Amino acid sequence: MTIIRNPIIPGFNPDPSICRVGDDYYLAVSSFEYFPGVPLYHSRDLVNWRPAGHCLTRRSQLDLTGSAPSAGIYAPTLRHHDGTFYMVTTNVGKNGNFLVSAITAAGPWSDPVPLAQKGIDPSLLFDDDGRVYLTTSQNQQSEIDITTGRLLCEPRRTWAGTGGNDLEAPHLYKIGGWYYLLCAEGGTHHGHMVTIARAKSPWGPFEACPHNPILTNRHLPGHPVQAAGHADLFQAHDGGWWLVCLAIRPHGKSRFPKVHGLGRETFLAPVAWTPDGWPVVNGTGTLGLEVAAPAPPRRPWPPAPARDDFDAPMLAFHWQHLRNPHPEYYSLTRRPGWLALACGAETLDEPASPACVLRRQTEYVFRMETLLDFIPAREGGEAGMTVFMNNNHHYDFFVAGGAGGRRLALRLRVGDMTVERGSLPLPGDAPVRLRIESVSDSYRFLLAGDGNAGSEVLLGTAQSRYLGTEVAGGFTGVMIGLYATRRGQGAGPSTAAFFDWVEVEAKN
Length: 508
What we know:
Distance between the termini: 23 Å
CATH topology of the largest domain: Tachylectin-2, Chain A
Radius of gyration: 23 Å
Number of helices: 1
Number of strands: 38
CATH superfamily of the largest domain: Glycosyl hydrolase domain, family 43
Structural class: mainly beta
CATH class of the largest domain: Mainly Beta
CATH architecture of the largest domain: 5 Propeller
Largest sheet: 8 strands, antiparallel
């Protein structure tokens, strides 16, 4: 038996969908208002994962203009059939359900093929007879033409579930002569659960599994893993069965209710089958930070570097933009070896696309550091680092211009309250080294000096709970990164902030 540590993909990586091609595994997750859309991961052993690209990398595929926080791309399903990858998803508030395809996971992926069927969380089944079935939330199902997306029949409901609210995340499979319909119920929080039913026809009638829900931690209030649900079932290349699902890791001091700020993460669990053909997840129908199972042999990838020197021709996979980026705000060539961010009019406070690059916070304890060269041309320009949950909940640590010269400041935005906590004059025009440290329940914001212990200056701290989902709402997780902007009539796009490098060290 092998001990597998969960989550297998930490940080904001929700609604996982997985497919196998030979002995390679590919996994897609939701991206909401972030661009590029639908991150893909690749593994050869189910435990070690590396980036494989994004499905939606062009505005023609993904228009996020004006998308509200936690709108945009919901719950993709990834499938591989007859030499082609297919990804089907929903752009909430825009063009609804659509699919894209590619010969390789790295792309290029096609322009969207629209799907007329309503609902969210779309899923595909390629049946043995060549028929393709599309299932969406509330278990609405139709047969479609996979080339054109045309519905070949009117959608109809196939199974009403077990009575839980928010019947969603349906996946239809054909296994051993049965059609299995896997679903999520109970809402994507502490009541989340996975249920399953089966029938001899894709149209039913479906019978519910006698031991539903087959996965939930809803009855374990003190457990370190909560909200397990939204699963996808698959068979490994060695014949074993597994599922991936989302779950959360709440944290906090005992005198406060626990919150989760990392978002919903991707977990893995083994699946066994009863003699009468029903799945049993992880032996107990529950999920933990460790699971024991006969996993395929470990085939790890080389470790990702902690430091990004911005010396590649393109930004690394982990950097994301808020909505569709303005290309003129970004440059890796204006000063080679540095990332230049232009001070545009958009700010982190609005549903727009400011100049920013963000990456997922993957652990509650981490250190992020950067070297910033920024001389604001006029009052109002600012650039620095951010801990970002959504437009109404973020902490910004920045260099700003003013009548008295440059200063270093910390601003906290929590709902409709914005306060500045700490301001430090910065004499001269030398680059500054900024550091953010997370110590589980709070963030620390420091001027790092020359990088040696004792040379730093602590500008301020902020509690992490106010960026947690239970406070900030939504379906995403905390992102950390770099930004530049102007406020009021300050420095314009011609004024740029230059970042020499970024180093992120996460501690599990």
